[in-house]
Amino acid sequence: MYGAMYVNSSGTMPPLETDTNVSPSRMHAESPHVHHKPQHPYELTPPYLYRLYIEGSGPAAIAVHLPGKLSYCWDAGECRLRFAWTGDFVDNTKLWKGHKDAQAAILGDIFYTENKSPVIKIGGNVQQRYQFKGYKIVEGGYPEFHYIINGVEVFELIKELKEGNGIVRSFRIPALKDKIHVNYTLTDNTGYYFNGKKLSGEYLELGPEAGAKFNIELRIIK
Question: What mean pLDDT is predicted for residues 12-27?
Fold first, then answer.
């Protein structure tokens, strides 16, 4: 919540229209923005994120709004990307009002949904155990997700492509000593690219050296 609190013996407050302790968008009671959009009193500049409930993800969802009207949902419970969309971000109105089973609404068009699980697989055919460790806001305001797979630390950073036609996923696995499989979902309107080449199989396999640090691009095909 945003606002100003005054404690005094007179019980008086400065007029809303001239109160410098509230944001300009809240200074006029007759303004439709007082009770409606925008949802914040101050303008938000991407990238920024919300922890929320949203359809298509588990209860530990993190929605991130990127520059260029690109957004994605990352599931902290399963440690993986869930989906990505173009357009505006999300509407949290019902969620913030506290309605039972309320969810945020996507204000755009989903262009990719990840249907593979697990997405990252380390080692051979052994059970993959995931543990979410949190995220760190790195240079530029982007969240870098930190999780552990079978005792191996993984760092994942997602940004917008400079061309505005998708996202780039950057992985760091400093202590990788085994091969890694990156599963991805093929769709008609998106393609995954590694080292500038479009991937055509069901997964990307890398050895310990190459898998320690790599990028894959998810591009929208128009």
Answer: 72
| Pairwise CA distance, residues 121 & 129, whole Å | 10
Total domains in the fold of the chain: 2
Work out the number of other CB atoms within 10 angstroms of the CB of residue 222: 5
pLDDT digits (tens, 9 = 90+) for 165-213: 999 999 999 999 999 999 999 888 999 999 999 999 889 999 999 999 9
Residue 169 and residue 124 in one domain: yes
Domain containing residue 169: 120-220
Residues 128 and 195 in one domain: yes
Rounded Cα distance, 209 and 39, in Å: 45
Same structural domain, 108 and 124: no
Query: Does residue 197 lie in a domain region?
Result: yes
Amino acid at 133: K
- Contacts of residue 194, Cβ cutoff 8 Å, sequence gap at least 6: 204, 214, 215, 216, 217
